[in-house]
């Protein structure tokens, strides 16, 4: 069964790996990609996404999404992802251009004309999806599900209370978490179980090929910035969403409502997990089978090597 997805990305080093995996998996069809502001500016995220999509021969359209959050003052993550948001790889002249048309209309038209078929994969702030949900009240009921990277049941990563994607647009995250669609949320609890340590780096680099060349040059920068500012190797946050779509059995979830703190000062952007509730539509990832995750990632890169060299 092919998973048909719309990806919403703030490319971003780990966003790029999620795009690699989606492009490299036979189980996934990318219907469209929307670049949004988050790790970096919209212009940078769009250029980074177009460059990567061009290099990976991705046919799907790439749209420009939101240039900033719904309400709060914009925050970015330049320290970690570098000046252009995807420091490391150098791309030549690209053929792929941004898709004309409005990203909100694309989301609504694609989902409503394929009811129950499309999964929305959000690996940056939730601004774009929140806007589409508000623009079309039917959208949530026609989505197959939402698979998002964000949140934490405990410590954050951008403040002690908040994870970056939620912190960058808490109001949007609250809209998404209350839309009623099935939601699979990959928070720090699970994504921090996927640390790209030196042995995994070498395993991936040994695969070779153009996609790995891009991966390696991006990780050279990302590893240095993570070691400097986070004092650890990078976690593969965003790729967890794609690994879930490829093999849901790799992940364990609890089911409960999740609220976002939108009024607090110290806890602004915190995800507050409510008591377990088997009837909730919100599933929060607690565990990932790390060996299976890395095997899945390696397979995607091996497929890309066959497809694009
Ligand atoms: O907290 C991790 C998230 O923030 C990831 O999506 C990463 O790309 C950054 O946007
Ligand atoms: Ca991201």
Describe this structure in words.
40% of the residues lie in helices and 18% in strands. The chain has 309 residues and is an alpha/beta fold. It has a single domain, classed as Ribonucleoside hydrolase-like (Inosine-uridine Nucleoside N-ribohydrolase, Chain A, Alpha-Beta Complex), CATH 3.90.245. The protein has a nine-stranded mixed beta sheet with strand order 3-2-1-4-5-6-9-7-8, sandwiched between helices. α1 packs parallel to α12 (239-246) and α1 (13-24) crosses α13. The two termini are 26 Å apart.
Write the layout of secondary structure elements.
Blueprint: E1 3-9, H1 13-24, E2 28-35, H2 42-55, E3 62-64, H3 78-81, H4 103-112, E4 118-122, H5 127-135, H6 139-142, E5 145-149, H7 164-167, H8 170-177, E6 183-186, H9 188-191, H10 198-205, H11 210-229, H12 239-246, E7 251-260, E8 271-276, E9 282-288, H13 290-308
Parallel strand pairs: 1-2, 1-4, 2-3, 4-5, 5-6, 6-9
Antiparallel strand pairs: 7-8, 7-9
């Amino acid at each position: 069964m092919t998973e048909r997805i719309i990806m919403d990305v703030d490319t971003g080093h780990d966003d790029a790996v999620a795009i690699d995996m989606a492009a490299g998996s036979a189980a996934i069809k990318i219907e469209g990609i929307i670049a949004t502001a988050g790790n970096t500016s919209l212009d940078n995220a769009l250029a980074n996404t177009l460059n990567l999509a061009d290099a990976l021969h991705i046919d799907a359209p790439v749209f420009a999404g939101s240039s900033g959050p719904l309400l709060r003052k914009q925050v970015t993550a330049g320290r970690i992802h570098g000046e252009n948001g995807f420091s490391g790889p150098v791309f030549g002249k690209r053929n792929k251009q941004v898709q004309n048309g409005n990203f909100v209309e694309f989301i609504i038209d694609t989902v409503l004309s394929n009811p129950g078929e499309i999964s929305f994969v959000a690996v940056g702030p939730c601004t774009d999806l929140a806007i589409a949900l508000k623009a079309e009240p039917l959208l949530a009921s026609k989505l197959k599900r939402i698979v998002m990277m964000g949140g934490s049941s405990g410590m954050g990563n951008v403040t002690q209370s908040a994870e970056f994607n939620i912190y960058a647009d808490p109001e949007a995250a609250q809209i998404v978490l209350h839309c009623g669609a099935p939601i699979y949320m990959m928070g720090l609890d699970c994504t921090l179980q996927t640390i790209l340590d030196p042995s995994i780096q070498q395993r991936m680099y040994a695969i070779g090929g153009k996609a790995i060349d891009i991966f390696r040059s991006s990780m050279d920068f990302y590893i240095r910035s993570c070691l400097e500012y986070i004092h650890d190797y990078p976690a593969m946050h965003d790729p967890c969403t794609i690994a879930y779509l490829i093999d849901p059995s790799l992940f364990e979830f609890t089911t409960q409502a999740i609220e976002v703190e939108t009024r607090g000062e110290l806890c602004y952007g915190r995800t507050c997990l409510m008591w377990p509730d088997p009837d909730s539509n919100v599933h929060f990832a607690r565990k990932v089978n790390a060996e299976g995750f890395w095997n899945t990632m390696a397979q995607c890169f091996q497929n890309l090597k066959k497809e694009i060299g």
